Amino acid sequence: MNKDWNTIDFLRHVRHDWLNKIQLIKGNLDLNKPDRVKEIINEIITETKQEAKLSNLDIPQFATKLLIANWENYHFRLEYEVLAEEKCQLTEDDILTSWITLFFQTLNQHIKPFADNHLFISIHSMEEGLRLYVDFNGVLVNTESMSSFLQQPFPKHLVVENTEISDKELVFEVWMNREKTGK
Amino acid sequence: MNKDWNTIDFLRHVRHDWLNKIQLIKGNLDLNKPDRVKEIINEIITETKQEAKLSNLDIPQFATKLLIANWENYHFRLEYEVLAEEKCQLTEDDILTSWITLFFQTLNQHIKPFADNHLFISIHSMEEGLRLYVDFNGVLVNTESMSSFLQQPFPKHLVVENTEISDKELVFEVWMNREKTGK
């Protein structure tokens, strides 16, 4: 899973993603659906704005993990949004990155491959701390192991709370209190 | 000029380039010019095909130099095409990369900043060797130095030939004979 992305491979993935978008526009133009094309373009612009916001949070390792997640052959598709945009701290980057890496791997082991698995992460970085709202929809094959994973103690100041789990959905929040990490 | 591209910056550049294309499509849609939109989309697809061909030549360092050249703040805009597509050799990658790096820097020093400077490179990789057709259009402020640069001896087996130079155009070919480099 830990590929050593070199520039060429990297650009190949990006090019592939963008060409898909262009083909979608082209297809709808050919079907003479200019309104659908405008919708698609607005969706693309919204998506790139979220990418830009994520890139500006000053947590480059964590941001990179999310930005390239859909090229990593996980059995889920990731989407994210960034709502509040208070800059983060460098120490938070390490903690969050270790945690999300472990979470992606664990989730990947406990879901049904090739099912319609979607992971949505909403990121709120506020003055008092950082909160992630995590929402997985799809097929969980081992809810108990997944539950145990989320109940284990995590690196300092990272708290998982409000967990709800079934075989079709997993919802929880991750909270890091900025006062405690010494802002 | 030698920026240490990290992933975030890298994706920022790519995103910026693609958003420009999307905005161009959006603008022409708003002007109710679907035919122009289709032209733009075909240009985009052609361009990405050239990127893919360049990426498949097995000269990753050289390919990267060309792929990221337009993010490097040179005073020229680079375009390229790949015609013949015989795979290259690893030793050619080092030689070509050293040479193109030096050429980009030298050209950049000898052209008028902010003029309409275009550099076009056509790459032909054939059984018998690799040929680059280089064509610069713009404003050269020092044709003599540029000439001397092109006349100096280059790394083994890299030959610059058929040079024509004026203050508005510079054309030459780079030739590397594959029999000599020991295929």
Task: Explain what the structure shows.
Two copies of one chain form a homodimer. The mean pLDDT of chain A is 90. The longest helix of chain A has 24 residues, at 7-30. In chain A, strands 1-2-3-5-4 form a five-stranded mixed β-sheet. In chain A, 46% of the residues lie in helices and 24% in strands. Chain A starts with 6 loop residues before the first helix and ends in a 6-residue tail after the last strand. With 183 residues, chain A is an alpha+beta fold. Chain A contains five helices and five strands. Chain A binds chain B through residues 5-8, 10-12, 14-15, 18-19, 21-22, 25-26, 29, 34, 37-38, 41, 44-45, 48, 51-52, 55, 60, 63-64, 67-68, and chain B through 5-8, 10-12, 14-15, 18-19, 21-22, 25-26, 29, 34, 37-38, 41, 44-45, 48, 51-52, 55, 60, 63-64, 67-68.
Biggest protein-protein interface?
A-B, 31 and 31 residues
Tell me which oligomeric state these chains represent: homodimer
Largest sheet of chain A: 5 strands, mixed
Identify low-pLDDT runs of chain A: none
Strand content of chain A: 15-25%
Strand order of the main beta sheet of chain A, please? 1-2-3-5-4
Count of individual helical segments of chain A? 5
Radius of gyration based on Cα positions of chain A: 18 Å
Structural class of chain A: alpha+beta
The chain-level mean pLDDT of chain A equals 90
* Succession of helices and strands of chain A: HHHEHEEHEE
How widely separated are the two ends of chain A?
34 Å
Overall 3D form of chain A: globular
Proportion of residues in helical segments of chain A:
40-55%
Give a count of the beta strands of chain A, DSSP E runs of length 2 or more. Answer: 5
